[in-house]
Amino acid sequence: MATFIGFSTDGKVKPPFNLVDLDLVKQDILNQLKTSKGERVMRPNYGSIIKESLMQPLDALTKQDIEDDCLRIVNGDPRVSLINLSVEELEHTLRVEMYLEYKEDLSRDALIAEFDFDFDGENV
Amino acid sequence: MSISKRNSNLFAAENWEVAYSAYTNVSFKAYDFSTMRSAMLNYIRENYPENFNDYIESSEFIAIIELLSYLSQSLAFRVDLNTRENFLSTAESRDSILRLANMLGYTPKRNIPASGLLKVTSISTSEPVFDTSGVSLQNQEIQWNDEEDPESFDKFVAILNSAMSSNNPFTKPIIQKNVGTIPTEVYAINNQRGQNVAFSFEGSINGEKYPFEIVSADINQNNVFKEAEPNVYQPIRFLYRNDKKGLDSQNTGFFFMFKQGELKFNDYIFERALPNRFITVEDTNINETDIFLQQLDENAIVQATWKQVPNLTGQTLAYNSLSLDSRNVFSVENTINDGVRIKFADGNLANIPTGIFRLYYRQSAGTSLTIRPENFNALTINVPYFNARNELHNLTVNLELQTSVFNSAPAESLQSIKQNAPQTYYSQDRMVSAQDYNVYPLSQSVNILKLKATNRTHAGHSRYIDIEDPTGRFSKVTSYADDGALYKDDEPYQQNIIFGLNKTETQILTDDIARMTKHYSLQNFVYDDFRKAHEKSNPGAFNLLEKDILWRTQPSAPRNNTGYFTTLNAGTREILNNSTNDNRIIQEGSYLRFRNPNDPTEKMLASINSITNSAVPYNTLATTTGVVSLSKDIPNGWLAYEILPSLNAELLEQDIGVAFKNKITAKEDFGIGYDFNPINVSDSHWYIIDNGSLLKDSKFESSRESGASWIIRAEYNETESSGTTSKYTFVGRGSRYIFESLSDVKFYFSNDEKTYDSSTGRIQKDTIELTTENYSPEIRETYIWDDTDEDGISDAWKLADSDATYVPAGASQNIILRGRNSKAKDMELRFISNFGILQNGASSISGSANYAQGDFISPVEVAIKVDSVSADTGKAVVAKGDPV
Q1: Does the distance separating the beta carbons of B66 and A40 come in below 8 Å?
Q2: Alpha-carbon distance A111 to A30, whole Å?
Q3: Mind spelling out the 3-state secondary structure of B361-378?
Q4: ipTM of this complex prediction, to 2 decimal places
Q5: Which residues of A touch B59 (CB under 8 A)?
Q6: Contact (CB<8Å) A5/B52
């Protein structure tokens, strides 16, 4: 039986919208990664800096900032722990890869988020 | 599933059971974001624990809940805000408050402009006007009340008359009314038409410049100044006021009216009759008083003036055309920042406007200004005018503000509107109930900050009875009593003065001694004992009939309080000079009794306030202020037939200054006397009585040669003096009058509870009126000549209502009076005996004396003697006066 039961419409057009356990946690983390700071009502500090960093040259400093921000977001969710994190720049895309461990059953899975420079959307 | 249950599900919204069930889960306390969010999360936790437990802020569902909470908060805030703005007590927006007040028929007050009168201090004209001597006044500046030019007034009037309409020269005003008791006349300058409705100027107040305008003055039906309706084709009007206090009075002269602000106008063309038309004026800070709406013809000539209705409940556009006797009415609504919206009627009970209209309005500062005379420096206006020959000339007028003006007020505050609007609606534009009296006046003026009306009557009081407040705070209380007593006591006034400190002898004489002469006890003495003593020694001493002194008013008026006296000297009428020996009796401070020479029953009493130049007028011109000032207006030509002299302290220094100093230096006792009418030229009014002839303890004598004629005596106190200082005790003769009531009325004096007269702002004083005079004493003690040892011969006085007996001893009755706290005059002693009373004419006891048998009522101070012979026989005699 699932420990965490949640809800997401991301990438879905019809029910079921339910998600459970590690999939749910990954979706929750992804929600925050895809939200810019100040975008959400009443929560100005919610979200990530990734979108604002897309146009910055991905030097070591910016990369470190993005990694710190990802680490902060993952650490904010007590249900998982971060095993590995990488931030890479592809063609017109910033790719964030996280390898997560679900604390309930110690299962592991990768979370990959890609952010297009042209803001048309993200590929996960 | 039953049909009813299915119906309930289908029509869930209408089914009360479903609705009731749903509402039990709703938190109606949740209005803001956090409580909304908590309420929804709690609802999910309680009802869907198996379907959702992802309570982390990055959850999409939580994001949706928070978005919903945000929207709910926003909606709740707006609903709450709109609701609050719909109630007068909670509305905050000025627009909302004005609308709500308007709904209640209340028109909030806009700002009140400062307004007042400017006195014309000088004028000049470009026209060749000639004075009575034929001298041209062209381009000459004529000062008002020019002391160096006795004809300045005539010149002033000559110039103005030339500039005024020939139909209304000076003394033939357009309007003549009393404004605040001052006769005021309205005149008009025949100025060039079609140019000015007002003359602009600037005033600098607290470093800030404000626009002002000189406007055409008028007087309304309540005898208050108002601005005449602006009309470029009407002459500008000004005022002449005369308070009869001479030309230098602030309220005498020619005046122009001014208002703070800038008069503007908008023209409107209403081509078709549109019911309920309104026009909005975009300008702000439009004042409360100056809105004029005129209907014009195509040449801009005023055809009609439309009247503004108050727009209060019961006085609306639709209802008050009858009360105003006009169907041409409009109302004014306020918009924010003192803008206005002009509203017209629907045509049923008032006319719909059609044609050309001009709306005049004045923008004012919208603040409370205190305008002082120095704020208007060198104020000059030039008025082009046509003279009687229709030639265009220029009148230059210099103006000055005489007194400070502080009658402006800002617009009514929101708090005030919120308070007054419902109260005014409640009072329905009338004052009937007690609450009406407490609230209605507030709606009439923004200058009333606090109001309290007290209900002094109650159900059952007839309206035909003059209601009195028994506390005496709000109405006069009249207490009737029949036990009043008035008596006079000797009350010398005493003051210790040390010489040699910080004041010179002369300063003490003119300050301290002069103040002593004005003390009420000494004044009482002068008006009674002093006067009686002089009357006794010199009958007719105060009679002025022989001098035949007549009062002449100056400035000339039927009655006035300034002027001079004339007197008959050896058959010739001449101006009275009070420095001459015959007339030295006329002094400042004295009272004069006047009477009408043609009707001796008409009499008036006035005191002489001041005399300058020995009462001799500088000139006898009709406009000059007289040298003698009286306490009240006395008709011209009345006869001064009697004088009540008082002490003229102004003469102290010149009369006895040197002698006084010498006496102090010599450390001597002395007396100070006053001769109200010195016979000899060399004698002064005040004089010093040497210690050698001073009779300190004697009763007053009127003769100035007598040592008892002192009214103030000085005693040197050697023990408390030093080499450099001299301590004196000054004792003034004096008396006081005491009115008392034995039991009916209790007089008490409280300095903490003063009652003020609201109209004068002065403290109200009580008065005692004597309806009748009653000389009967209040306390009676009756003694009966009684046989105490039962030997058949009466031997003692026995008190009628007790067993107390008193055996006479010689001239003394040995009676101990019981009424010890009473004055002797309040007591009556009644003696009942079988002996006789000496009647008038019998001065001693003898067998042949005229006796009267029976009761005897004696004043206390009269000694009664029982002679030894009579005592032996049980009979006695009583003698009034000196005991035998």
Answers
A1: yes
A2: 8
A3: EEECCCCCCCECHHHCCC
A4: 0.93
A5: 6-7, 28, 31
A6: yes
Nearest CA-CA distance, residue B261 and chain A, Å? 51
Distances (CA, A) of B315 to B286, B412, B430, B431: 22, 21, 11, 15
Helices A60-75/A21-33 angle, 10° precision: 140
Residue A30 confidence (pLDDT) above 90? yes
Residue A86 pairs with which residues in a beta bridge? A97
Beta carbon pairs, A and B, within 8 Å: 52
Task: Note whether B625 and B653 are within 8 A (CB).
Answer: no
pLDDT score at B637:
92
Give Cβ neighbours of residue A59 (< 8 Å, ≥ 6 apart): none
Q: Quote the minimal CA–CA distance from B62 to chain A in Å.
A: 9
**B810 confidence band (pLDDT: 50, 70, 90):** low
Number of alpha helices (DSSP H) and beta strands (DSSP E) in chain A: 3, 6
Quick check: helix, strand or coil at residue B631? strand
Backbone phi, psi, residue B80, to 5° = -65, -45
The answer to whether the Cβ–Cβ distance between B66 and A42 falls below 8 Å is yes
**A77–B63 CB contact, under 8 Å:** no
Cα gap B336→B168, rounded to integer Å? 45
Give the mutation candidate from A8, A42, A46 for the B interface (greatest B CB count, under 10 A). A42
- Residue B57, min C-alpha distance to chain A (Å): 8
Residue B871: what pLDDT?
45
CB B168 within 8 A of CB B188: yes
Radius of gyration of chain B (CA): 44
Considering the entire predicted model, what is its pTM?
0.51
Return d(Cα B721, Cα B725) in angstroms, integer. 6
Question: Measured at the alpha carbon of residue B372, what is the angle toward residues B368 and B377, in degrees to the nearest 5?
Answer: 125
- Restricting to A residues 24-43, those with a Cβ less than 8 Å away from any Cβ of B are 24, 27-29, 31-32, 40-43
- The rounded distance, in Å, linking the Cα atoms of B125 and B105 is 52
Q: Give A45 to chain B, closest Cα distance, Å.
A: 11
Q: What is the DSSP string of B783-820?
A: EEEE-TT-SSS--EEEETTS--EE--BTTB-----S-T
* Helix and strand element counts for chain B (H, E): 14, 39
Residues of A in contact with B58 (CB under 8 A): 28-29, 31-32, 46, 73, 76-77
A4 neighbourhood in chain B, CB within 8 Å: 53-54
Residues in chain B: 884
Report which of B203, B150, B139 is spatially closest to residue B394, judged by C-alpha positions. B139
Chain B residues bordering chain A (beta-carbon distance below 8 Å): 33, 50-54, 56-61, 63, 66-67, 69-70
**Pairing status of strand A122-123 against strand A108-116:** antiparallel
Q: Which amino acid is at B646?
A: S
Q: Give the DSSP letter of residue B471.
A: T
pLDDT at B884: 33
Q: Which of A7, A48, A77 to mutate to test the interface with B (most CBs of B within 10 A)?
A: A7
| Contact between B190 and B167 (Cβ < 8 Å) | no
Contact (CB<8Å) A7/B52: yes
Q: What are the structure tokens assigned to B19, written together?
A: 């609705």
* CB-CB neighbors (< 8 A) of B61 in chain A: 6-7
Yes or no, beta carbons of B66 and A41 under 8 Å apart: yes
Q: What are the pLDDT digits (tens) for B617-672?
A: 988 888 888 999 999 999 999 999 999 998 988 889 999 999 999 999 999 999 99
A6–B54: do the CB atoms touch at under 8 Å?
Answer: yes
Q: Which pLDDT tens digit goes with each residue over B369-381?
A: 999 998 887 899 9
pLDDT, tens digit (0-9, with 9 covering 90-100), for B279-295: 999 899 999 999 999 99
The residue that leads in pLDDT, A47 or B540, is A47
